[in-house]
């Protein structure tokens, strides 16, 4: 609809009509009392912190970006229901409000960052370095596009982040955890336990007779919601990305060889030499030392005389580029085993010795041809992406479906006949023809049939999609899922019997029985695990048993089911060890660093909470629910 309005208003007739339409809308807003969108807290605002408003579109962008980031980490899209179940909707809202409070405070304090400071901040980010270790503008543009940022938006976001760090860095500076806190935390972290345990599985559950038709029907009625058919959607999407377009881009050998020659030095393996070096304050000391080295004194012994250890003298196998210019020129002019004359450098006068020479390997075009061609194809494809994007937008603006527009532009449209919110087809299998990291399913479930959807940013390109049809969720009948129902009934029967058997064993053990005797009575074996800590994963011991053991006193017993319900473990804690902590150990140092960060985070959180209360924070729950899908 918006594309249609834009196209309609592109000439003088359209502009006149649109002016009249917008005038009528503004008058109607005044008549019907919708002018709060101009006066203050409106329907298009998710939250307001002081004078800073978090717009509905801004929060939708932030929330969508966060879900896509998590989806890429999981390797599959995260549905709105899953996000709400994990509490991600509230977390993102709280974080966005906290950032808005810090932004508001930065404005009140008059803090600022110059354009040059932000430029240096971005250029010093190692994520944007190219193969030469320096800032690569093309890599910068590619990476921020992959995460859905324009350059302008990314720079603006980094400016805000820098100002927030000024505030939080000051608030959290100088915090030091008390020694008593570190002692308690160290003991908690290093405490060790030992257990003996017995596994009860289907062998101990006994025979499970098949359920009667009446019992199965009753079980199905009680658990019908677990077997309900989810809502399915038919979607069509088309991908325009450098990676996709590059697949069918032809690159000639001539073009590839030109780029190869330009980057040959980067692709080649440089000569390396095993070098020993000692730096002296002046040329006289260096010359005297060289004469002693020529007489048979080793670099190692000379280094010891000067208070240097082996790593100070032995530079190892290095390339010329790793050395100071004058030292590198001299060292790479020596033969193996030779000692240099004194070399004047920036930090003093050096003497070097070459121990071993590892020749460099010049890059061969035949070896790198494929990589170079792919790189050229990808660069060309980036230009093509922009052209195709504009053409696709024109087609979509004219009302053309994604499938028809893709066909017209020579693209491949992918059709998924039925997919649920979790990305699975009706057969329960994950839909295979969705590119990894593409969050088109959750986007489709936030849309509807006939909606003109905005494209999704993906791998430096775009994805357009249509929701073609919706199959509503429904209750299945028993005949459709009989095998699944019987399998679930059987699992529940086994879990119930094992639970009863384990409870009986625990009662006998609490009355003085031996685990070995109880295990022999049910034809099971006793296993042991010892010396494990809270965060350890000892072999054959599930994580929930480790956690349960640390909740149990010495000689205490307990039981816990293993994930899936087909197994229950009965255990006894046989030993508890509280080892003395070595305050100089790396583990304690890491714990101190972790505690420092926790204290800083708490301090900053308290400060931000106070800011939000003092400045004043209001949340529009209806707009929040609209973005996160809670009102669907």
What report would you give on this structure?
The protein is α+β, with helices and mostly antiparallel strands. 51% of the residues lie in helices and 16% in strands. The strands form four sheets. A four-stranded antiparallel β-sheet has the order 12-3-14-13. Strands 9-4-11-10 form a four-stranded antiparallel β-sheet. Helix 6 (88-109) crosses helix 26. The model is unreliable at 1-41 (pLDDT under 50).
How many β-strand runs?
A: 15
Percent range for β-strand residues: 15-25%
Low-confidence stretches: 1-41
Treating each run of at least 4 consecutive H or I residues as one helix, how many helices? Answer: 27
Major β-sheet annotation: 4 strands, antiparallel
Q: Given the C-alpha coordinates, what overall shape results?
A: globular
Give the C-alpha Rg: 34 Å
Q: Report helical residue fraction.
A: 40-55%
Class by alpha and beta content? alpha+beta
- In whole angstroms, how far apart are the ends? 23 Å
Sheet with the most strands: spatial strand order: 12-3-14-13
* Average pLDDT rating: 82
């Amino acid at each position: 609809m918006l594309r249609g309005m834009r196209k309609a208003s592109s000439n003088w007739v359209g502009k006149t009509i649109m002016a009249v339409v917008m005038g009528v809308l503004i008058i109607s807003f005044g008549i019907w009392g919708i002018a709060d969108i101009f006066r203050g807290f409106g329907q298009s605002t998710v939250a307001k912190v002081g004078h800073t408003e978090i717009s509905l579109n801004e929060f939708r962008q932030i929330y969508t970006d966060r879900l896509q980031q998590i989806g890429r980490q999981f390797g599959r899209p995260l549905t709105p229901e899953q996000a709400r179940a994990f509490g991600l909707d509230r977390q993102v809202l709280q974080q966005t409000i906290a950032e808005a409070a810090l932004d508001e405070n930065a404005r009140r304090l008059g803090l600022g960052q110059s354009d040059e400071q932000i430029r240096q901040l971005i250029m010093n980010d190692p994520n944007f370095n190219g193969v030469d270790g320096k800032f690569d503008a093309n890599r910068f543009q590619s990476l921020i596009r992959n995460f859905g940022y324009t350059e302008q938006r990314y720079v603006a976001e980094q400016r805000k982040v820098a100002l927030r760090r000024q505030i939080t860095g000051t608030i959290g500076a100088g915090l030091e955890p008390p020694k008593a806190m570190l002692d308690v935390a160290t003991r908690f972290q290093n405490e060790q336990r030992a257990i003996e345990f017995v596994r009860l599985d289907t062998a101990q559950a006994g025979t499970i007779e098949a359920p009667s038709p009446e019992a199965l029907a009753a079980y199905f009625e009680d658990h019908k919601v677990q077997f309900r058919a989810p809502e399915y959607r038919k979607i069509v999407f088309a991908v325009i990305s450098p990676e996709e377009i590059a697949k069918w881009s032809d690159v000639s050998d001539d073009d590839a060889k030109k780029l190869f020659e330009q980057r040959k030095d980067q692709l080649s393996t440089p000569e390396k030499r095993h070098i020993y070096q000692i730096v002296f304050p002046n040329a006289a000391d260096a010359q005297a030392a060289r004469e002693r080295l020529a007489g048979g004194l080793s670099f190692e012994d000379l280094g010891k005389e000067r208070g240097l250890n082996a790593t100070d003298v032995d530079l190892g196998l290095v390339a010329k580029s790793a050395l100071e210019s004058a030292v590198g020129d001299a060292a790479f002019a020596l033969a193996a085993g030779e000692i240099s004359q004194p070399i004047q450098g920036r930090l003093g006068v050096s003497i070097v010795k070459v121990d071993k020479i590892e020749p460099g390997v010049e890059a061969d075009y035949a070896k790198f041809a494929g990589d170079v061609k792919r790189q050229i194809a990808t660069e060309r494809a980036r230009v093509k992406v922009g052209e195709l994007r504009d053409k696709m937008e024109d087609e979509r603006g004219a009302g053309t479906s994604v499938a028809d527009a893709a066909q017209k532009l020579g693209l491949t449209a992918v059709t998924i006949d039925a997919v649920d919110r979790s990305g699975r087809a009706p057969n329960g299998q994950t839909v295979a023809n969705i590119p990894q990291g593409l969050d088109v399913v959750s986007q489709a479930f936030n849309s509807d049939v006939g909606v003109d959807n905005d494209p999704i940013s993906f791998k430096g390109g775009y994805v357009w999609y249509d929701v073609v049809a919706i199959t509503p969720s429904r209750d299945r009948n028993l005949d459709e899922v009989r095998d699944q129902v019987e399998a679930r009934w059987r699992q529940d029967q086994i879990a119930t019997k094992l639970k009863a058997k384990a409870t009986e064993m625990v009662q006998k053990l609490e009355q003085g029985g031996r685990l070995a005797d109880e295990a022999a009575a049910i034809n099971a074996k006793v296993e042991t695990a010892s010396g494990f800590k809270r965060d350890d994963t000892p072999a054959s011991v599930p994580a929930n048993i480790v956690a349960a053991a640390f909740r149990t006193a010495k000689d205490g017993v307990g039981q816990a089911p293993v994930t899936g319900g087909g197994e229950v473990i009965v255990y006894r804690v046989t030993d508890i060890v509280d080892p003395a902590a070595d305050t100089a150990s790396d583990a304690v140092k890491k714990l101190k660093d972790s505690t420092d960060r926790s204290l800083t985070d708490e301090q900053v959180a308290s400060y931000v909470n106070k800011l939000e209360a003092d400045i004043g924070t209001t949340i529009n729950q209806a707009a929040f629910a609209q973005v996160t899908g809670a009102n669907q």
